[in-house]
Fold this sequence. Notes:
Layout: E1 9-14, H1 20-34, E2 39-44, E3 58-63, H2 75-84, E4 85-95, H3 98-107, E5 117-118, H4 123-127, E6 134-139, H5 186-189, H6 216-233
Parallel strand pairs: 1-2, 1-3, 3-4
Antiparallel strand pairs: 4-6, 5-6
Amino acid sequence: xxxxxxxxxxxxxxxxxVNAEELQAFVGELKSAVGDGGKVSxxxxxxxxxxxxxxxxxxxxxxxxLPPFTFQCTVDCxxxxxxxxxxxxxxxxxxxDAASTQSNLKLGGFTSVSEPRNANxxxxxxxxxxxxxxxVTCSKPDFEVGSAMKLSFAKPAAKAPTTxxxxxxxxxxxxxxxxxxxxxxEEDLIRPDPTSLKVxxxxxxxxxxxxxxxxxxxxxxAEDMKSKEASKxxxxxxxxxxxxxxAFRCASCPYLGMPAFKPGEKVKLEEKTLQDST
Length: 278
């Protein structure tokens, strides 16, 4: 009966509406098939996921094998069946929706899913059904859920060649080694100004933060002013109109903000022009 042998552990999954007397009689037949050394468990499909059966504890699972064959192979139900089955354990399902059942079994992780075939029903069972009933069998893979194995097509890492490699003898008098000091230029030997190494404790760079109180902002502003003054000394107007005033000056003109002056005139701002008149 369904390939069940003595001493096996079998799980019978049923779904309503099932005749209680037929269910009890069928469970008695299963117990006779497995004998005293076997075990038969009965579970409602809706309660299967919360039943907490031991993992890999059943040799065979029967689902929906009693009329009216309305068992639904949901993803959660099939996942629990797969968990409780032993590796290579088998599952037999009877259903009137063969195509959907076969697809769900493959997606659920079962292997060796058979083609749907007509279920071998008794004459009494045939009288109670109005649609063809199919039987599908499958099995759990020969490994446990969560196990791992090496891929067979993985290639070993290539070993580095041991021939045709460089071998320098540092004790050889014919080998001339460069003096590290000869690689340094005169600029490399100049000691940097300590003030140029000062960085902001917040930004970690030579850039003042928004609320700078360490004096770096003032130092950078002074350096920027010196740079601008130096650029003014070497500045040559490309338009020749800088002396006419801001209306004739470009955006990068160093004379922006200064009053107009005569060509060649040395521009110098008086101290009073920098003071607030109010």
